[in-house]
Every structure is written in structure tokens, then in C-alpha cells.
Amino acid sequence: MGVEVSAAVTVKHRSGEASLLPDQAHELRAELARKIALSVGSEEIRATDIPGLTLGRRTATTAPCSMTYEPSVIFIAQGRKRVELGRNIFICDESRFLLTSLDLPVVSRVIEASEAVPCLALSLKLEMRVVRELLSREKIELAETGSNSPGIALGETTVEFLNGCCRLVDLLRTPQDIPFLSGLIQREIIYRILRGAEGTRLRAIATLGDQSHRTAKAIAWIRANYTKPLRVEHLAEIASMGCPRCTIISAADRDESSSVSEATSVAGSAGPHASGWSGRGECWL
Prior knowledge:
Blueprint lengths: L1 H8 L1 E2 L5 E2 L2 H19 L4 E3 L5 E6 L6 E5 L2 E7 L1 E6 L2 E5 L3 E5 L3 E9 L6 E7 L2 H10 L14 E5 L2 H12 L7 H18 L3 H8 L4 H14 L7 H7 L4 H5 L3 H18 L17
Antiparallel strand pairs: 1-2, 3-4, 4-11, 5-10, 6-9, 6-11, 7-8, 7-10, 9-12
Helix pairs in contact: 2-4, 3-6, 4-5, 5-6, 6-7
């Protein structure tokens, strides 16, 4: 009997760290939802004093909206959100966060929200310099997954991840602590992401010279020069690739490129100045 109780109290992950009971993860999700609701109040979106942290609240479902996701992690503490990248569909809820490691055009909508139970969300922009710093200074054991995973992925909201998010939101009550502690907590959250299966792609994007990093540079240039003529030779120079290299793409990269192209077509049909194209306006996170 004692062995059974001990087994129920902790579950060992590959990393050897112990995770608390699922009930405690549920409690942390509910706690984070309460903190977000308290911080946002009656607003729909709040850009906080913590660099890169935005909180959101919706009391009704929304129509599909075209927008661009920057490298970020989005967690839906309450309710559900649907994100489309080409043919790929991602459903975000309290058990799964959304990780975007590239600037990507998506179609997003809130699919579960009401006045009684609003959709509550947290968005944290990822600074690639911080990711690179962590990878260079710390020996991090990464999950063994293929390097051709998509530029957008779902990750499990573990107790450790939720703990970090709760403590980050808590800093809004003590603004004097933000300059000293917010960076440390954000580093911890990035560390938790890197340890998960979805962290492999984030490492690839952040690593200088990696194919994924060069692709990210090309996407960033296209986004910043949306209305300018595009020459493949110039884009190859920006991405540090030869022209033949630009046209020789692996099957996995081709699938992702197709998704990006389709999403760009959908988002672009409304024009770059449409509401929410850059992630603002009515689109909400």
C-alpha cells in the first residue's frame, strides 16, 4: 500500500525531475486564470509593464482573423483558441500552450468563451538572444525529436511551466521587482520550453548558421519589406544561402513552406492593413 501511495504522489520524467500530481497542475492553471482575470479587469487586452508579456480576455467567441505571430509562447488559461497555419490546425487550451519560433502568418479565432467563463490568455514574446544565451551558457538536455518539426507547435503545460507563469504574473503586483526578477523568470520559462519536445525547433531557430535560423532571417526580411519587389538572389544573400540552396528544400521543409505560403495567401487576401494583420486590433493575441 505504501508503494502505491508513493507512486501516486510523484511521476518521474525522462529528465529525472519529479512532477506533482495532475490535480496540482489543475490548481495552478485555475490560479493563473484568476491572476490573469484580476490583472486584465474589464479590458480585452493588456500590454503589461513586464517586457514581452501581454494578457487577454474574451467574453465571446470570435470570427477567424488573419494576423502574424512573432516568436512567442501563448497559453490559454481558460477557454479555447484555434490557430490555423495552412492546412495545420492547432487547438490551444489549459493543457497545451502554443509555441511559435518564427514570424508566421496565421488565422486565429477564439472558439470557447462566454460572459460567465471568459477566455483568458497569456502571451510572452520570446527573445532569441536570451534563448541563444541559455543554450551557450548552460548544458541543457533536449528531447530527442526530429529537427524538421514545424515552426509552430503545441507543448504540455507542466507544473514547472505553470509555476513560472504564475510567478511572472505575480510581479505585476510589485512593479518595483519587475526590473530585477522578470528577466530571471522569463529565462526559467524558456528553459522549461527548451527541455520539452517542442524545444528542439526553438533551438534550431536560435542557433546561428542553422538552416532554420537562416530561414527565419529570410522570413523577417519578407515581413519588413512586404510591399517591395522580391529577388531570389537578394533573399539568398540575406539568408546566407546560394541560389541553388534556396530551391533545394527537404520534404519536411517543403511541407512547412507550403503551410506558410497558404497562410500568407489567406492573410494577404485582406491586405497588410486589414484589422489584426500585425496581431493588433480585434484579433487579440
